[in-house]
Structure formats: structure tokens, C-alpha cells
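Researcher: Please generate the 3D structure of the following complex. Treat every line as part of one assembly.
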Amino acid sequence: DGGITQSPKYLFRKEGQNVTLSCEQNLNHDAMYWYRQDPGQGLRLIYYSQIVNDFQKGDIAEGYSVSREKKESFPLTVTSAQKNPTAFYLCASSPEGRGKNYGYTFGSGTRLTVV
Amino acid sequence: GQQLNQSPQSMFIQEGEDVSMNCTSSSIFNTWLWYKQDPGEGPVLLIALYKAGELTSNGRLTAQFGITRKDSFLNISASIPSDVGIYFCAGSGAGSYQLTFGKGTKLSVIP
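Model: Done. Output below.
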């Protein structure tokens, strides 16, 4: 079955450490996205990528970095420069250029807690 | 940029009651989507709408694409405890595959 996988589900890190969240999809989707979700804040876009080796900043990119070396993979690194990294992180993917907008398929999320 | 206003922010309802929520955009959309997020999980697509005035159902859920192309509505009939979660609207304009999301409506169902 095709899908989008985020790992790990829960992640604990010490303050000041970088941490990388994994996102893999086997849906052959062109675009991938990273969102941050805080209680009552909705979904805030961190980065997105529409093609391999290219990505764009979203609304809250500061303190985060990404790479898109393969179509299937879009890892997110939360750096020590991110002032308040504790949050629920969601990865999504979508097909493009196929007529209708079929929307995003989301992963099941990674809850990052920085202590 | 485009903005979506989703209301209400939260709802507490009795089991068996009907629910209505809506989204309003500052610009015209060609696609409206409704998602549900269960606690601790990612959002899942419920309904997709592509034409002004379109009314689409998915079980007890019914969504409508507003005729002005700037709004959409979601109704849930005869709510049950598993309807609990956050409902998000999302939309995109002509030729765009990138979605703008509302801030969500948090639904609580009292048994």
C-alpha cells in the first residue's frame, strides 16, 4: 500500500541539540511539505519542495533546514537556532500537474519534545 | 497572501446533534477540501469540492462549495463520539496545487 511515513512518532532531545525528522513517501508525489502544529495555532508551513534538489521557505522557516535529494524523501532538521522547537510536526505530499488538486496526504506526525 | 477564516474555533455538542462549520476566503478558490485530524494523528481528507454550488456527501458528512467561490460549509449529522477531532478546511486558487488551510474547528462530543 502506498503512503507517507514519518519517524519516529515521539522524539525527545536536549536543548541545544540538532535533530532530524524523517519523512518518506511511496506515492510518487512530486511535492512535499513540512508543517508545525501547536495547540490552537492550526498548521504552519515550514518548508516545501516541488521538485528534487529544490525547496522553498514557508511562513516559519527560521531555525529549520531541509533537503530533497530523492523524490521519496524530505527530512527536516530542527536546529539549535529554533527557539521553541517543542511541537507536533506533520509531513505531507501531493501530486502536481495532474489536473484537479487532489489535496495533500499527511503522515501520522512526530511529536518533538525538547527538555 | 490568501487567508481562510474558519469558524467556530471549537464546539461542544451532545451526541446525536447535528454540527455545522464554515470557512471564508479573502479570494476566490477553485478547490475546497475538508480534512479531519484525530488526536495525535495526521489530517485525513474527508471531502473534495471542485465546482461552485457543488454539494457532496460522505456518510453523515455533507460539504458545500459556496456559490461566491469564497466559502465552504461542512455539516455532520447525528454526531457520534468518534467524530471528535479537529476539522480543517483548505482551498486553492486557479492553477495552484498549494493549499491554504483554515485554523481548524475542534469538535468535542458529549456522550
